[in-house]
Specification:
mainly beta, three-stranded antiparallel beta sheet, 12 strands, about 65% strand
Length: about 120
């Protein structure tokens, strides 16, 4: 006897010579969630050198949460959110970006610090 299959009510009914078995039918992938992104350009002043660096922060988010963060085009490995502040690190620099106040604060493990303002681009 030849085997045949019929999909009904989310179950895949498989019939062959010995009987019929119910298996979960393969589900199609749900539509991808729509994401948006915002880019902040931050002018950070690093001390003690007193140099100004332009840092670019790209934040990808959907309706529920922040999905990804990039700093200067480099995706960060991990990040945490505390209210409006994004906490992350790149190399030895610990970075805090306040999205409400639009400020940048960072620390090179106590060797140097930076503070600055950010603007949406």
């Amino acid at each position: 006897m030849k085997a045949f299959a019929t999909a009904t009510l989310g179950l895949l009914l498989v019939a062959s010579g010995g009987g019929v078995w119910a298996q979960p039918a393969a589900k199609s992938k749900p539509p991808a969630k729509k994401t948006s992104d915002v880019t902040l350009v931050c002018e950070a002043v690093y001390l003690p050198a007193r140099t100004t660096w332009t840092r670019t922060v790209n934040i990808v988010y959907d309706q529920k949460r922040v999905r990804a963060v990039q700093i200067d085009g480099v995706p960060v490995y991990t990040f945490a959110i505390q209210e409006t502040v994004i906490l992350t690190a790149v190399d030895n620099e610990r970075i805090q970006i306040d999205t409400a106040a639009q400020t940048w604060t960072s620390d090179f493990r106590g060797q140097a610090t930076a503070q600055g303002r950010c603007e949406r681009s």
